[in-house]
Amino acid sequence: xxxxxxxxxxxxxxxxxxxxxxxxxxxxxxxxxxxxxxxxxxxxxxxxxxxxxxxxxxxxxxxxxxxxxxxxxxxxxxxxxxxxxxxxxxxxxxxxxxxxxxxxxxxxxxxxxxxxxxxxxxxxxxxxxxxxxxxxxxxxxxxxxxxxxxxxxxxxxxxxxxxxxxxxxxxxxxxxxxxxxxxxxxxxxxxxxxxxxxxxxxxxxxxxxxxxxxxxxxxxxxxxxxxxxxxxxxxxxxxxxxxxxxxxxxxxxxxxxxxxxxxxxxxxxxxxxxxxxxxxxxxxxxxxxxxxxxxxxxxxxxxxxxxxxxxxxxxxxxxxxxxxxxxxxxxxxxxxxxxxxxxxxxxxxxxxxxxxxxxxxxxxxxxxxxxxxxxxxxxxxxxxxxxxxxxxxxxxxxxxxxxxxxxxxxxxxxxxxxxxxxxxxxxxxxxxxxxxxxxxxxxxxxxxxxxxxxxxxxxxxxxxxxxxxxxxxxxxxxxxxxxxxxxxxxxxxxxxxxxxxxxxxxxxxxxxxxxxxxxxxxxxxxxxxxxxxxxxxxxxxxxxxxxxxxxxxxxxxxxxxxxxxxxxxxxxxxxxxxxxxxxxxxxxxxxxxxxxxxxxxxxxxxxxxxxxxxxxxxxxxxxxxxxxxxxxxxxxxxxxxxxxxxxxxxxxxxxxxxxxxxxxxxxxxxxxxxxxxxxxxxxxxxxxxxxxxxxxxxxxxxxxxxxxxxxxxxxxxxxxxxxxxxxxxxxxxxxxxxxxxxxxxxxxxxxxxxxxxxxxxxxxxxxxxxxxxxxxxxxxxxxxxxxxxxxxxxxxxxxxxxxxxxxxxxxxxxxxxxxxxxxxxxxxxxxxxxxxxxxxxxxxxxxxxxxxxxxxxxxxxxxxxxxxxxxxxxxxxxxxxxxx
Length: 884
What we know:
mainly beta, six-stranded mixed beta sheet, 1% helix
């Protein structure tokens, strides 16, 4: 197909994986993962991140593949059973990060064939009659173009006319796709005929001239007979006839099939028409163990030959089948219906064996087993069995067949443990064995609707394998669950973080198989951990490390989930613990807009943090604490209840979220995203909701102290509404933004009002961020930007005064004078400083009033720590504002 992002049939070669290798795949929609790996090269073939490659991909008519990179073969593969396909599309599909969107260039494509050109049209070999299928097979000497094979391309003499359907088929011993099968609605009587053919072409487009071929038909006068009866399950018996039988000859009528003893008719009949000899009989309920005879009446073949009554015997025998744990699973639980009489538990046989339901018992957490049925009843592979509290009430709502269990153990709405037990019946084996048990809680879902199992073969007691039914009826008893999604993928690696100096924790998207969690399955920065311990819920692993834990990755290979899907060479970057100063407060929204009448989206209280380091940092165990009350008690809020990190130079936003928003939707559907819409994913921002209507940030100022669970403080400040720009009359709906994240957080001059139209820039660079990086001279003062315009437009609203001293430590005083020599602002009175430093000036005087446009002199005076040496430096700053 032309769209490579759709499911396609074909082949693709992948360059660049975790192994930095080259891989050959065949794409087959419907196969697990929609593709099959045919071959892969050695690892590290593509070792350079920035590289130019010359690639040649070759496939011979003998199905031998060869992939060459820069002239050298890196992969060969002999395909032994390829599908019969012809290629019509070619393309390139690139998966990249947002920062790599323009990093790929392709040119000089050539898709060529070395096969000689075909210029000869196809020729007819013969035409034969297939009486059993009422079809004519017209055989050609080469493959046909299926598009040219139409009903109008053929006409049979003597009034038979054009076929009702045509198809191109493969026949053993003949070229693939070289036979056209013509199907007719009625049998062709014996005699000699001519088939006229026109418009037929081969795949190269060579059209065969119109012509005739002779056809000899020998009539079918023999009626069908029964060859065998195959019992595939107690509910399913296949009758195999000597030839195809006609659905027009009563093949599909259930009354034409009678099973004795009991004079039982099937509940449905699968009649194959002209395509097969097998008629599938389905029985609901299933047939009990015993010997039966099925009698078939009024059956005829495709030529209209009707058989007399036919009969054949068969046995239903389920004795000796003893279920093992997991053979039959609890697949659906309706524990909190609107009417308590509608409670039910659905069982599903996921094995390839048939069991007797009378050998099984049902219990809840009180473990009081009760019999399900008293008489033998077969449960075949794939069968559903619905156990109900009240069969009449159940049938009135859901219909279908169910089994009312005497002494039904009522299911508790807050949590229970429905259990299926084997009593050691005729099949042998120990009694009282739990075949399956589900210890659910209300937190799993299922309030008002049923609780459905996602993967029948998945874990019974993991909430990740259960979800509330999405069916319109609120449940799916006796049929496939609405949330059915078999797990056929390896467990995803969600996150990896440093816990302390000796441990790294790796989080997975689902519970793991405990036996697969071994130190040998992990490598941290290339070294195997000393131990690997699986967490209580099975979805994380703690690794103990003997060396220093630094920036790098965890490599995982061989770890499996509970259904046996194995991770192969996955890598996850390690989020490290921050050091003091690595993670700082960068923006504060303490007075959000919340007016339901203003037509604007209500805002959330939030704190924005910035990672000032060059490393990926974890914020999973980070907290902020406010000012203590009169009892010395402080409110403490955890940044993230789920594992989370923040990339170097990027932002994390902790915000109040009063609504319930799915994790995958917080970047687009959360309260924060609605009020401040932007591409958070493209910004690589981390959003962490706190389930609350507010964070408790006080409008008149408060303490914000960022710290770890062990008490390490990363940043601390006491913000004040006075830090807003003097031009702001109402601070509702506008955030405080930090101008320079590396400058002291408690300097009011290092904060200003957001100039963003939405009132804030959560997850993005601040609107008042000082972008100047002009260094100080070796000895002196630099003012940048200058001119600057403190007009609250988000551009050059402040200036940085950077200085360098000739001494290692000094007391510094920095003052501002106007052009007449009058002191208008003291920025530092006696600040202890090292050899370099900087301060910010927002263009106001000591009273906070904005100064006029003009030239101002910056005077810096420094006295060394011995008090014996002083130095003075001057610089000019220009205050400007737009005209008009």
